[in-house]
Amino acid sequence: MNLTTMRLPFHPAIADAYLRVYEAMSKSGRLGRVLDLCCGSGLHTPFLVRHSESYQGVDLNSKFIEEAKASFLSGPTAQNISFHTMEGITFLKSLEDQSIDTVFVSGGLYYFPNQTTLLNELHRVLKPSGRIYAVETNGSNFLLNTYRRIKNFIHPYRDHQTTNKLLSAADYNETFEKLNFNVSVEPLDSWVPMIALLPARGWLTTILLRLVRYIDSVLLRSEIYSTYFAFKMLIVATVSPTNVHKK
């Protein structure tokens, strides 16, 4: 798959971070047996299927799962694809130990009220050196938190977790490390998504995207800046071969 020409159903400023995540995942080679946790209607399914041996998507929303089935359960690769309407922890408990190579989740970790239970189950089902790739919103982003709280006060529009329970890079580092994952957290962007709020399209958007992407790359080198102004983060957590789940 040519990532430079891949199209996602987002404004280019929003898609930019995901294409960078795909690039990072592609560098690790084949993804093996993939679990797409909180898969929705299959936004990331095309990329994950092309790089996997088998693919399972799970989401609690039955409407999303039906849309995903209608979109992907046909064609030559359908035999290696399955979708399940089920709560994430319940589905994980149905899987065998060390049966998954890669877990992908986008904007879903904070929905699980007990992170320890979730990560223990993920650790159990992942093979030695198996990986979790998670794209999450930075809970320490000052501007984002202020905006969401003001908007939610004026007109409630977000669930409690999204408004108040987003986790920071430090939270993810601490939580994953406690459960014997080797973890890295990389800020993906800060101001780039703001371009999506502008009415401009076409060549002007392309120029702005390149300019702001460069500015982001410079600013995010600062740990203090990335802590409080990074927007999206890529969390990569690997099961250490010396700390595999004991059967």
Structural description of this entry:
Strands 3-2-1-4-5-7-6 form a seven-stranded mixed sheet, with helices on both faces. Helices cover 41% and strands 20% of the residues. It has a single domain, classed as 3-Layer(aba) Sandwich (Rossmann fold), CATH 3.40.50.150. By secondary structure, it is an alpha/beta fold. The protein is globular, with a radius of gyration of 18 Å.
First-residue to last-residue Cα separation: 37 Å
Encode the helix/strand succession as letters: HEHEHEHEHEHHHEHHE
Quote the beta fraction.
Answer: 15-25%
State the major sheet: 7 strands, mixed
Number of helices: 10
CATH superfamily: Vaccinia Virus protein VP39
Specify the CATH architecture.
3-Layer(aba) Sandwich
Instruction: Please state the average pLDDT score.
Output: 87
How many β strands by DSSP? 7
CATH topology (level 3) name: Rossmann fold
Secondary-structure-based class equals alpha/beta
CATH top level label? Alpha Beta
- Unreliable spans are none
Radius of gyration, in Å, reads 18 Å
Read across the widest sheet, the strand sequence of neighbours is 3-2-1-4-5-7-6
Outline type: globular
Structurally, how many domains make up the residues? 1
Fraction of residues in H or I helices:
40-55%
